[in-house]
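Let's practice the habit of predicting before peeking. Look at the sequence and jot down your guess about where helices and strands might fall. Then scroll down.
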Amino acid sequence: MFNRTHAGGEIQMSLSPFDYLNSINMTKNDIMVDEQAEKEYVPFIVNRGLSFFQDTTHIANEMNRLNHLDSKLQYLFYINIVNKKKRFSKWMKASEDKNLETVKTYYGYSNKQAKSALSLLSQGQIDELKDRSYEGGRTKAK
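Done guessing? Here is the structure:
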């Protein structure tokens, strides 16, 4: 959360998708109390967060199917239907694969072509491509 000051000098806390997930899974407190909180609700992230668990996968899938519903309705549905339980998982993050970037840069390939070529190259060959395409600077990342 981070603070946000409005014209009247009042400070409001910004809610993250994880605040909503915590509210749905653990506290069962309705934190969507104003229009700003409703705007900050990201249904995709909340649906994804609940899709990692066997007991909430079907519920998250149902909300994906009903994505046309207002954020407030989706959130209230989750608070009232999901059983109170600790649900924590590591979020899979989209990480830029430096090896993929090296292959793209060296050969001038698209993402698809570079992924295909990457599966054929050994780590030693990739390191050689990095050395060949090194353009200088303070540090050399491998």
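How did you do? The chain has two domains: 3-81, 98-132.
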